[in-house]
Structure formats: C-alpha cells, structure tokens
Amino acid sequence: MARAGITSESLTRAAAELADEIGFERLTGSAVARRLGVKDPSLYAHIRNARELKVRVALLALEELADAAAAALAGRSGKDALVALAGVYRDYAAKHPGRYTACRFELDAQTAAGSAGPRHTEMMRALLRGYDLPEPDQTDAVRFLGAAFHGYVSLELAGGFRHTPRDADASWAWALDTLDFALRNHPSRPS
Amino acid sequence: MARAGITSESLTRAAAELADEIGFERLTGSAVARRLGVKDPSLYAHIRNARELKVRVALLALEELADAAAAALAGRSGKDALVALAGVYRDYAAKHPGRYTACRFELDAQTAAGSAGPRHTEMMRALLRGYDLPEPDQTDAVRFLGAAFHGYVSLELAGGFRHTPRDADASWAWALDTLDFALRNHPSRPS
DNA sequence: TTAGCTTTCCTAATATGATTAGGCAAATGC
DNA sequence: GCATTTGCCTAATCATATTAGGAAAGCTAA
To answer: Is B129 on the interface with A (CB under 8 A)?
Structure first.
C-alpha cells in the first residue's frame, strides 16, 4: 500500500488547478481525489470537509492575487498604478478563472481576517493616496474601485461582452480612463 | 393518488422563493420537490433537469428586475434616472438575494437572447442618452455602469462592507455621485 | 357515459458526491 | 527495533440527480 504523499499544499494546488480547468462551482472532493490518485475518504486526513477545499483555493487565490498586485504596484503611482492594479485582476481572471471565482467565495469573518483580503484593501488605499482623497471619501473610493474592478472582470468572465462587436480591451481602457478622471477631478478632492 | 397540481409557474415560483431563503447556490431539485409535497422524480414531468430549475429562476429574476427598472426609469432622466435604476438593482438584491444571484447564472446564448437581459442593456442605453455620449463611448459606458452596479451590489451582498464602520448607504450615494460626475464631464462628450 | 389518450405522479433502481467508522501498513521518533 | 502517529483503504450511509416503467387522474370525443 504505497502512499500518495499528499501534503496540504499539493492538495490545495491540485484543487486550484482543477478549479481553473472545470470551474470553481464544479470543484468537488471526488474530482480532487481522482486527480491525486486516492479514494475519496482519504481526503479527510487532510481537510475537514468539502467546504474547506474551496476555502483553501480561495485563500491561495487571494494570496497569489495580492502578491501579483503588490509587484505591479511597486514603483508606480497615479493612473499608472491604477492601470497596473486593474490589469493584474483582469489578467489573473483570464489566466485562472477558477481561482478568480474562488476569491469571491464567502469566508467566515475569522478566516477572512486572516486571509490576504485585507492586503487588497490596503493596496487599494495605497493606490488612492495618489489621488489625494480625504476620508471618508477614501473609504468610499476603495469600495467603488473594488466594485468596478470586480464587476467588470466578472461580467467579462461570464461572457457578458462576447455578443457585442465593441472590443473588450478598448472598453476596459475607457473604464480606466473614466475612473482615473473621476478620481482626479472628484468634487471632494481637497482644494 | 391526489395530484399536487404543479404548473410550470408554481414550480418556478417555489424555486425562486427557496433560492431567496437558502441561497441560489443551495437551490436543489429535492428541496423544491419537498416544498411542493411531491417526490423528486415527479419534477421531471415539468423540467428537463436540475439545471433548468436554475435557468427558470434566472429568467424570472431577470424579468422582474427589468420590469422594476422600467417602472423606475419612467419619467426620469439624468442623475435622477441613474439613481433610480441603481436603486432598483440594489433594493432587489436586498429583498431577493437568491434571485439576484440567479441573474448572474450563465445562460447559453439562445436562452440569454430570449431573456430580459437585452431589456436591461436597452434601459442602460436609454439612461445614457441623458448623458449625450457618442459611440463607441456609449457602449463602453453601458459596460462600465453594468459592472459598477453589479460589482457594488454583489460585494455588498457578500458582506464585503460589513466590517468597516463607514455606512454602506453613504458609500452608495458617493459612488452614484461619482458615476454621474464622470459621465457628465467625460472627455468624450460632444462639444 | 365511457373508451381512450395524455399528463402527473409514484416506486424502484442506479450513479455520483460527501462523510463516518474502523482497519492496516508506512513513516517517524526514540 | 518498537511504539506511535499518520495516511490510505474498504465498507457503509445519506443526499441529490436521473431513468424506467406503472397507475391513476383528468380531458376529449363519440
């Protein structure tokens, strides 16, 4: 009875790959077990339940995404930073659709607090420092940017733009121009 | 063997109510059957498969939402219309979280074309006529507004704003102010 | 009204996925 | 080298999705 040598990491990696291939919604314990060459019940030595599988993928994705965002943001500011950060989200979603979807998986407060989620918020705030918004506008802007990025990427991922001739890249650039314009000239900006 | 008297409509309604109560992701054929007081296989006289159940809820929700949007838009224009339309989405999501989520369910091209989806796009375009944007900016703006609305509502629904003191209503108003400002003063506006 | 047709529902059965219990062998610590 | 822990397996249970086949309900028309 040779062991498969599953580790917490290899299991999570396998689940993430699977999610990208078949979609996060269809991610299943059985499928992961099959991919790892073990029987379903063997997974329970490594995870508490099927939900934890998804949580793991979500945490991995949030961290990968935060790392990529941090790298892209380094040395950039203003619109340059805005475009770079937005591009990271969009590219990650295109390359890892399952993981991107996982980022939206609802975590309980505990888990969310320990995740890379707060890093994303911080980076958004760092980005917004280039736009000089006073509080509470900065908080509003964080939410607004998060919503705009996520909304756009998720609509694009769902194929919402496929049936209109207009190029998605061009629309994306337009959206970023508009966001930059709105933040730069926002009425609440100090003098 | 008395009949339950299920119709296509009563089935869809039951499914939609269930989705609002337990969440669209957890909507299951068995649960609907239980609610209707029939056995699982009896459903297959009315639907092709479990997926169709979700599709039905999605179509119902898209239509309800489009109807509400049309009513809210009637007689309004400019920012007034923007705020009204956005409010419809947000309120519907608050009142019918399962159905709102269903609106995001991926439909195949055929089904999507016959759904109320296109009405939503048209209404967005009607709203944007008040902002006088030339093509292709109008298309870009439709996508941008759709993304912003959906992104905001879905983040709020997921509880993304619950752990920050700033009031969600105030942030929402800020976002709408910002969108209105950006569209009104957009560089691409004629003259 | 009744013979016949269609529709709606049921029971039985199968497949997949999630999960627990209990066992045995492999790795690990001394 | 032995005891302990750990990883994996088989067997079993439960929920959901789905098919096959049957029977009764309700409509249709002579």
So the answer is: no
Which tens digit of pLDDT belongs to each residue from A44-84?
Answer: 999 999 999 999 999 999 999 999 999 999 999 999 999 99
Q: Which of residues 39-98 of A touch B (CB under 8 A)?
A: none
**How is domain B58-184 classified at the CATH fold level?**
Tetracycline Repressor; domain 2 (1.10.357)
Q: Which residues of A touch B179 (CB under 8 A)?
A: 182
CATH code for the domain defined by A8-184? 1.10.357.10
Residues of B whose CB is below 8 A from A155 = 143, 146-147, 150
Cβ of residue B49 lies below 7 Å from strand D? yes
pLDDT: which is higher, B63 or A3? B63
**Model pLDDT for residues A95-116, shown as the tens digit of each residue:** 999 999 999 999 999 999 999 9
Query: What is chain B written as a DSSP string?
Result: -------HHHHHHHHHHHHHHH-GGG--HHHHHHHHTS-GGGGGGT-SSHHHHHHHHHHHHHHHHHHHHHHHHTT--HHHHHHHHHHHHHHHHHH-HHHHHHTTS---HHHHHHSSHHHHHHHHHHHHHTTTPPTTHHHHHHHHHHHHHHHHHHHHHTTTTTTSSS-HHHHHHHHHHHHHHHHHT-TTS--
B12-67 pLDDT, tens digit per residue, is 999 999 999 999 999 999 999 999 999 999 999 999 999 999 999 999 999 999 99
Q: Do A174 and B137 touch (CB under 8 A)?
A: yes
Q: CA-to-C1' distance for B23 and C22, Å? A: 37
> CB distance from B175 to chain A under 8 Å?
yes
Tell me if A144 and B181 make a contact (CB, 8 A cut-off): no
